[in-house]
Amino acid sequence: MTQSIRSPGYPEIYEANDECTYIISTDLPSEEYVLQISTVKFELDDHQKDCNTDYLEIYEGDMASGTLVKKWCADSEYVYKSRSNTVTLHFKSDGEYNGKGFIIFYSVVEYASVKCMEKAGDPIMIGQNPLYESFQGSLQKSRCEWAIQSNDPERKLIFEIFKASKISCQDAVFNFYEGNSADNHVSYQYCSTLNPFSKIYLTSDKAMLTFEPTEGAQFDENDDLILRISTRSLTYLCSSTNHALLEVEKDPVVFPLPYVVDGSGNACPVTLVTRDPDNQYLRVDVMGTSKGEATCDSDLIDVMVSRRKKKVDKDCNEATSTPVYRQTSLDSLDIISKSDSLVYLRASTVPKICSGIVNKREAFEDVVVKEHVPSKDGYPNLAHCRYLITADKLGDIVSLNITWKKSQNETDLPSAPGDFIKIYDGEDDESAVLFSSLDKPESLEDKIVTVVSTQKDMLLVLDSDARITGNALHIAYFALTGGNYCPSRKQKIMLDRQAQYIMSPNYPDALPLRQTCLYHLVAENPEDKIVVEVVEVNMTSKCDSLLTLYDGDVTSSSAKTTLGQVCGNDKPKFKHDKDITLLATSGDTLNPGGWKIKVYTQAKSSVQTSPKDSSSRPSPALILLIPLAVIIASVSGVI
Asked: Where does the CUB domain start and stop, copy by copy (predicted)?
């Protein structure tokens, strides 16, 4: 039987200058049994950071003649096992600051060796009391195996993470197998940045746990995974109205179907619930079956909204190509198996904003809206955030800027390809894809990506896996009036003595926000000089929107010699003997209007007036209605 010790007054703050001694003893033979002590809640005040103010000590034997084996003074998970028949706990607080104290569980469990062996030895037996066990890998072994078995064949195994391992997925993974062989289908795979879980339920009384390092792996052999292993009955008095309840907390719960059975051996429906239904929505992933992998075409379970008996649609997890069911209302979920095989499921909770519901946003022509997806604190594991951005006026389109820096620990693996973004040209994911970083994480590395829709709606989807998450996604969006914007590529315009005109998108109306137009002006006759006349200009006086002329054929990022700049209402005239590059940019402030420029050539040795306008040969830049979506990637700038 598992019993507990609590600090004085727990959960209230313990008093100053408290001192308590607890003696735990057993008459059972130490060759077969050990005293197991584990922290559950632990909060002592150690304001001097020296473990000499408030602390808890563990002695093998009594305090007078025993050995001090541990001194606790901070919030931490800890398990201690003693082969002695007596263990003494000594708690002391000083006269100053105090904490909430502690809860410690203790019990007697069977002794088991957990030494790393490439082939599992005798099984670790799990009795009535939960077993806390530390599992460590070895750099000298190609793998480690541990067989684990319930004392009672009718009681099935449960695994909980008590202390997580920090070993990277690149170096090693822990595999959980249902049954007594590692040749069976893996039930679950875990490493420090892959698949956190709160509990794994099995339908077997036997399991195999393996530690499998990668070739050339480097890790701390003292970095262990501590599991709390217990058992449960598989039989449940269920009916059509009395389902087995399974609570899903912050970290996922992994369980099989059937989860429990009635007295006749028939599978019972399972109802998933969460402690915070107002803010956390449920998600169910099909991980596989006892016969192998699951695919998006697999029809293995039915998921129903409990009270309304409404079926939840199956979706496809694009990163893993497995079925996923997302809750879209505040209610519990009923899970019913449709397969004659064991079906392994992962149930998790995600914030409402990233549960798969559509978050609607509006884009305006006169302001750049900036926000984090879903918040500045980042995004959760297993998120599916959907943002529908709609231009506020009919005929307008949406321009979206994205910056995203993933965590340095985020490394894509075949079993978890990583977090990704998809952008659709329309209101749903049946629309054409404008941009995708799936399997292409480098497409967002240290870049600003600009995506432009061809219609008033654009759908942004952020999908994250079960591993460590990255930083928040930064987005900035606005509407482009009439669908007009600068072309994505530099335009080459050949000039002669007849004048041509280049006009800003939407001219004479307001120049759209965040535009970059690049024109290369070339004289057809190399003996002529190029003339640029600003005919009309109506931009902000702050000069965050500019017309800049450069010498020669340059790009927006190359070294350049400036010939002149135009902003506000200036109307200068420029002449140059060689090619000219004209760069037109706009900022985040809406301009009153736009600009119109006359360009032509004249003889280098003559002084001429402005030539006759050409009405039959418009500049290629006159028509700026671009029917195709454009993606511009830049290596500099911040949203």
From this structure: 1-109, 354-480, 486-590
pLDDT score, position 625: 34
Pairing of β 384-391 and β 355-363: parallel
* pLDDT-flagged residues of the chain (< 70): 40, 46-49, 74-77, 185, 193-195, 405-417, 441-443, 445-446, 468-470, 556-559, 606-639
One-character DSSP codes across 2-46: -EEEE-TTTTSPPPTT-EEEEEEE--S-TTTEEEEEEEEEEE---
Calpha distance 172→470 (Å, rounded): 21
Tokens of 76: 């931490």
- Cβ neighbourhood burial of 307 (10 Å; 0-12, 13-18, 19+): exposed
* Secondary-structure breakdown of the chain: helix, strand, coil percentages, each rounded to the nearest 5: 0, 45, 50
Q: Which residues pair with 343 in a beta bridge?
A: 257, 289
- What local confidence, expressed as pLDDT, does residue 629 receive? 37
Nearby residues of 443 by Cβ (< 8 Å), 6 or more positions away: 435, 437, 449, 633
Other Cβ atoms less than 10 A from the Cβ of 549: the count is 22
Two tokens at 364?
């305006």
pLDDT for 273-283, tens place per residue? 998 877 889 99
Sheet with strand 253-257: strands edge to edge:
131-135, 225-233, 155-163, 199-201, 253-257, 343-351, 280-289, 322-326, 314-317
Judge contact between 284 and 333, C-beta under 8 A.
yes
pLDDT of residue 302: 94
Query: What pLDDT is recorded for position 414?
Result: 41
Phi and psi dihedrals of 164, rounded to 5? -75, 150
- 67-to-39, 52, 55, 70, 88 alpha-carbon distances in Å: 20, 18, 16, 9, 10
Name the amino acid, one letter, at 422. Answer: K
The 10s digit of each residue's pLDDT in 29-55 is: 777 777 888 876 777 776 666 777 888
- Alpha-helix residue ranges (DSSP H) falling in 422-532: none
Position 251 scores a pLDDT of 85
How many Å apart are CA 58 and CA 359, to the nearest integer? 53
> Which pLDDT does position 468 carry in this prediction?
60
| Residue 216: predicted pLDDT | 85
Tokens at residue 510, please? 């307001």
User: Based on C-alpha coordinates, what's the Rg of the chain?
Assistant: 34
Q: What whole-number distance in Å separates Cα of residue 103 and Cα of residue 85?
A: 22
How much is the pLDDT for 469? 59
Residue with tokens 């149930």: 347
Long-range contacts for 31-34 (Cβ within 8 Å, ≥24 apart)?
31/111, 32/110, 32/111, 33/108, 33/109, 33/110, 33/111, 34/81, 34/82, 34/83, 34/108, 34/109, 34/110, 34/111
The whole-model pTM stands at 0.74
186-190 and 155-163 as β-strands: parallel, antiparallel, unpaired? unpaired
Helices and strands (DSSP H and E) totals, the chain: 0, 46
Q: Report residue 107 as tokens.
A: 């019990």
Task: Using DSSP bridges, classify how beta strands 491-495 and 516-523 pair: parallel, antiparallel or unpaired.
Answer: parallel
By C-alpha distance, which of 387, 475, 379 is closest to 424?
Answer: 387
pLDDT at residue 189, as a whole number: 81
pLDDT of residue 547: 93
* Residues in the chain, overall count: 639
Query: The dihedral of CA 49, 53, 59, 64: what is its sign?
Result: positive
Nearest to 575 by CA among 534, 537, 538: 534
- Which pLDDT does position 616 carry in this prediction? 39
d(CA 51, CA 56): 9
**At 606, which amino acid appears?**
S
Q: Quick check: 1 and 107 in contact, CB under 8 A?
A: yes
Residue 609's pLDDT is what?
Answer: 54
